[in-house]
Amino acid sequence: MTFDPAAALVKYHAVLDAQDVDGVAACLAEEARYVSPAIGDVVGREAILASIRAYFSASPDHQAFDDEVKTTGPRSAASRWRLRAVNKTTGAVTERRGIEKVTFNDAGLIVLIDVEDLP
């Protein structure tokens, strides 16, 4: 069976949107890197999961949507996304949209998530 990066990205987003941290862990390589204007440069599966747990704890109503997901190479995919979340402590509303480029290793695990916010 041929690896489908777009399908793998859709699967990752599904477990992320379900706030299934164990499911997210299963998608990430141990040495994965997550680069985003919102959280900075986070290296390592456990560090990424800690960041995700903290985010969902602060904003449990997080809602994200993919407007487009496409394969960009044999081991890469990209999505155009948007999200809305409210911080449960401060009440601050976050609305973002952007491009996410994801690279997978030969085992189909994510090694790089590179997020770019759009105006």
Q: How many beta-strand segments?
A: 6
Rg computed from alpha carbons, rounded to a whole number of angstroms: 14 Å
| Poorly predicted sequence stretches spanning 5 or more consecutive residues | none
Beta content: over 45%
Rounded average pLDDT: 96
Distance between the termini: 39 Å
Q: Can you count the helices?
A: 3
- From the spread of the alpha carbons, the general shape counts as globular
Q: Which structural class is indicated by helix and strand composition?
A: alpha+beta
Q: What level of helicity do the residues show?
A: 25-40%
Major sheet characteristics: 6 strands, mixed
Your description of this structure?
It is built from three helices and six strands, in the order ααββαββββ. It is of the alpha+beta class and 119 residues long. A hairpin with a 5-residue loop joins strand 5 and strand 6. Helix 1 runs antiparallel to helix 2.
Question: Which descriptors apply to this entry?
Answer:
3 helices; 6 strands; alpha+beta; six-stranded mixed β-sheet; 29% helix
